[in-house]
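#random but structural
TW: two for the price of one
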Amino acid sequence: MINDLSSLEEWNHALGVLLQHQGDQDCPHYLVQAINTLVKVEAVMLTLERSGEAPVLFYDIGIPEDKRELYIDAYFSGAYLLDPLCLSDDESIPPGFYPLAEVAPDDFYNSDYYRTYYQNTALVDDVFLIAEPQQGVRLSIALGRYGDQAKFTVDELRVLRSISSIVQACMGQYWDYVQTQNGHNRWQPIPIRAQVEAAFRNFGCSVLTQRERQVALLLLRGHSSKSAAQKLEISPETVQMHRKRLYLKLDIGSQSELFSLFIEALSNASGLEEDPLTAYINKV
């Protein structure tokens, strides 16, 4: 952190180098170096998100090899749809700086998604810097700490917030570079992305009512019955009623079983208009 002249000199030097590279392929690397002069981070992921499409990993550093299958492969295959920072048409988070706790649903830390994709990766803390270089396009930078490292302090979070505008400006220049180098063809939707998105939308449509599906997806994302009720503008008691009914219809008895069923069904998705549960049930 900037608490003496030496730290300020380190930041100024790193920022100068970053500004020289903000419009080329090395921008993420030098951005991480600059951030580390202020706040030490161990793992970084830079992700491209476009509305209605699966995210694309642009850059990462510090992710252990034994965690990549879970933290990257499974996440980008479809689990990202349950993440609090997932870009959606109806509930996107504006550009800025966000600790995970600030954007997560009220029961997120008790959810199976959190246990699977956060706790199992040994992350002790995660914060995000989000830039929006153009409408419908977002560059999300996840900064994490592992194992026995301390969580980000209040002062460190304040420092990260203070550089949010610099990060956003650099990401805008970096996005211009990406578009110039790759054109638009690379970012066109591909069938598997459309398939994953459709599987998410259609999960349970063959057996559940629309309201039951809405409740199921909110529970999977880490909302409590009270939070889901506020989202759907119904009472918590009504949410509980829908929850019992969908559990009965899916022959499950807990939220953990709902999560497992969702992940299994998602991996067996086939058609764009089909319920992924149908393919999964037929397979087993």
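TW: number two ↓
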Amino acid sequence: MWWNPIDLVEVMSAFIDRLEQLSLGDAVLGDEFDTIVAAVLDDDPSAGAVAISEALERGAGLAEIGQAVAHAAALRIGRFHTSNEFADWDAVHNTWTSCQALARALGRAPSLELARGLYHAAMRVHLDRFLNVPAARLPDERSVSTQDLAFGADGLLELLDREQQVTPVAAMVDAALAAGDSDRLIAILGRAVPREDAEFHAYQTLEAGVRQYNALRQRHPLAARRTLVSISRYVAAHSPTPRALQQTYQIAVRLLRGDDLTVAADG
């Protein structure tokens, strides 16, 4: 809840009121990027608000700060433990996609009014902290077996044909990214999602993940890598499905060609 046990509205208010005294900056975040991410993930909600305010006061670009907050949201997915209820994947998904949308908006039309969203986003990430207790460890935070690494990007679709492969998929994606295979990996993820009976959330998660990866890959390569690993965990958690939608597409194609639907498609 936003008011209990800590009144998050009160935490934000003092910082938001100070926004009017600031001028917009465009400075690039260096190591401060990781500082903001860690602060937003801190158990103390004021830590994230303080880090955001300090970055603004030093003239950091709004889009840069937005990307840091969005990365904190992505890590909630990356560290989402599968012992949580399955429906709670949607909770971290909603936070992640809204934060990434905010970062994109700040890049297109930066304003102090829109900067208010940084504090709201940070508080939303804070509210998801219980879904990281216990926290799943990202592949780069633990030892990964040789078998996990051997799959490479080409084996991803095969692995996604089996249920409960969240951890192996994350390890495979991390290994592919570490090997510099990101373009092929993204293309394969782009095949993996449409073949499922995917809802809008899956498409949102994938698009937001690829956009964030491309935005971070030059200046913050580890954050970019962790972003794709995180969204791959979401994709794996929702795979495989009955894939019934494919039959609908096939029927539509056959109707377009004028085929006789009473004849088997492989007949």
